[in-house]
Amino acid sequence: MPTLVMKFGGTSVANLERIANVAEKISREVERGYNVIVIVSAMSGKTNELIGWVNDTSDIYDAREYDAVVASGENVTAGLMALRLQEMGVSARSWQGWQVPINTTSAHSAARFVSIPRDNIEAKFAEGFRVAVVAGFQGVSPEGRITTLGRGGSDTTAVAFAAAFEAERCDIYTDVDGVYTTDPRITAKARKLDKISYEEMLELASLGAKVLQTRSVELAMRYGVRLRVLSSFDETDETSGTMVCDEEEIMESKVVSGIAFSRDEAKVTLVTVEDRPGIAAAIFGPLADAGVNVDMIVQNISEKDYDEVHPGAVTDMTFSCPIDQINRARKAMENAKAAGSINYENLIVDADVSKVSVVGIGMRSHTGVAAKMFRALAAEGVNIKVISTSEIKISVLIDRKYIELAVQTLHDEFDLGAPADDV
Amino acid sequence: MPTLVMKFGGTSVANLERIANVAEKISREVERGYNVIVIVSAMSGKTNELIGWVNDTSDIYDAREYDAVVASGENVTAGLMALRLQEMGVSARSWQGWQVPINTTSAHSAARFVSIPRDNIEAKFAEGFRVAVVAGFQGVSPEGRITTLGRGGSDTTAVAFAAAFEAERCDIYTDVDGVYTTDPRITAKARKLDKISYEEMLELASLGAKVLQTRSVELAMRYGVRLRVLSSFDETDETSGTMVCDEEEIMESKVVSGIAFSRDEAKVTLVTVEDRPGIAAAIFGPLADAGVNVDMIVQNISEKDYDEVHPGAVTDMTFSCPIDQINRARKAMENAKAAGSINYENLIVDADVSKVSVVGIGMRSHTGVAAKMFRALAAEGVNIKVISTSEIKISVLIDRKYIELAVQTLHDEFDLGAPADDV
């Protein structure tokens, strides 16, 4: 029998009524002839409650105990889902991470998969069980302690099972009905994509589309797992949602697939930094240690090229990060300056910026996308502050007040509201 | 280093403040030089929440899934307690049932211990850990699935660990400060006992004193575990609470140790039952199947010894059960009659009775306790409806309206308010 992996996030299993609703979806796939591996998250809010308790209990952070506490939320959902399926006449049982076992590294709270042996679950399928309900987000370390994979780890668990069991597909049920060309709240012309390539999805996810956890897409790409994103709240069938797959499978001909954006960015510029080998490491090391997620980095030659105080070359260094990390970033820079490991004349923070990106695998073979983007923004009077590019995306920082205008303009410019032509 | 087992029930770990308070008590025992094994229950209310979810999810009762869900409450407490102890500088880690492992039978929701190997926990003690925080109430089956021991199973877990690790003592922290001669709410003369024998404790616990789970006392008696009951809310020291121990260790000279009672009993009489071999089984089998906890059983020869309709001997059969099981009991009897497996003329229910018992290991060597009890009740005009006796207790059913009077009268009659003379 072919295997299907289905994953349900916290909002999809938030209460008993939703669990029952989701069980119907599982039952339908069993009727279609699949053996189903279901990956469940904790009921919405439960993980945060547990994390709150851990934080309030101790300032000492023992990730092993953190994991042991936090993983319990998924175990509850797994048991309840198995019971609900039994109630509907579907032979199901729950699996906790250590029972499968989901072998991971000992990097608690950020563990990585080592192996997922198929034997135990396959033995149950052979006995006639049709559904294995697996607690997501968790595993077991070589020392026999419970590990967790970090936030979004249930998506990753689903993809890892799909890879290990060579599943026909991995369906990620969530609270949106697919991947859109951009956020429909910004423009009513936003259109759901039927298919999108792994590479594009990676850029969209990491740019704030918030549909799929980045690591799960990476894993899917690596193992060729066909990933489908669809809504757990709608009626769904074989054609629902958005399929994330290899670009060969995609027949659409658009150069640009979507416009991603991230509203709450900040831009930090260190003015007149000594330009010597190792200076980048001296700046971004302390930022990483302080937990600042640096996104774009731009280095320019400063106007004050040589002077008496700084006999070497000097430069200006600009980076962006989420706005709520700006104090940490500033403090890390000030500490590094005080410690003498870096030197700068001035630190300028611009907390009123947003990022907008055009993403499309077609850029690889089409030129002029950047020029088209910049021209469209200029025509609307939107000033570009920082530019960063990769093979399949172009991102710019702009003033926050222009973000809706910029997204709408680019969505129109690249004609994303219209269905793609089949090639 | 000597080992101490400490057990904390749900109300003792009901919130983070109480967990912190309890951690102080553990820390003090570590300072006294013990390696401590701590058994924790789920935070008060959590287990009921989980059970409610299971019941609302499915009418089909799969005890394996029930156990997997319900055991998660204790895992949360264990992790939080370990974190709190670490915060205080005490080296502690949590243990879930399968990690120890606590090997049990496969009788889910009512599993029994098979073995508790010391190796894993002792290896950690040898590394310098001073506290093992074990999730109570759970274990792992030979099939590798999570089991639970049923209600009160955390007490039993504590005693089993004390036996396995040859602990110096097993301290059961609860919301009362010890075992009393009777309920202090009934008479202000009730006095806390410093020591009580296993046998007496068994009778008191099963009669409704509600301090210790019966099976845990049986287990303690069997393995000679010294069990102490004390309050998690008071300041406690080495002499606090009540010690449950071998009778040889008890120097008190009272014949009667306590007056137990159970307010909400009901009495059922089957009038004119055919008296033939197997009739008791035909009556009490269906009651057991219906989940009725039959307590006292009395069989009298009926007045209508022989008649034409029932050519055999006939009898009346009376039993008592908790009042909230009376409908189940009635239905089970009516069904059995309808099915023809038993026959009776009339079923009489008396739902207005209570049970009062005098308990004392001294009864073994002292005669006249029953006569003294019956005389004292008669002097107050309390009519006795049913009598049942064991080696160390005498129980009677009386009208519910007399229960306070009866307890006070017997407490005075056996002079329980005064401290015991040391022999």
UniProtKB/TrEMBL annotation, chains A, B:
Keywords: Amino-acid biosynthesis, ATP-binding, Kinase, Lysine biosynthesis, Nucleotide-binding, Transferase. Pfam families: AA_kinase (PF00696), ACT (PF01842), ACT_9 (PF22468). InterPro entries: AceGlu_kinase-like_sf (IPR036393), ACT-like_dom_sf (IPR045865), ACT_Aspartokinase (IPR054352), ACT_dom (IPR002912), AKii-LysC-BS (IPR041740), Asp/Glu/Uridylate_kinase (IPR001048), Asp_kin_monofn (IPR005260), Asp_kinase (IPR001341). Substrate binds at residues 47, 74. ATP binds at residues 7-10, 174-175, 180, 185, 210-211. It comes from the Bacteria. It catalyses: L-aspartate + ATP = 4-phospho-L-aspartate + ADP. Its EC number is 2.7.2.4. This is Aspartokinase. It comes from Pararhodobacter oceanensis. The lineage of its organism: Bacteria, Pseudomonadati, Pseudomonadota, Alphaproteobacteria, Rhodobacterales.
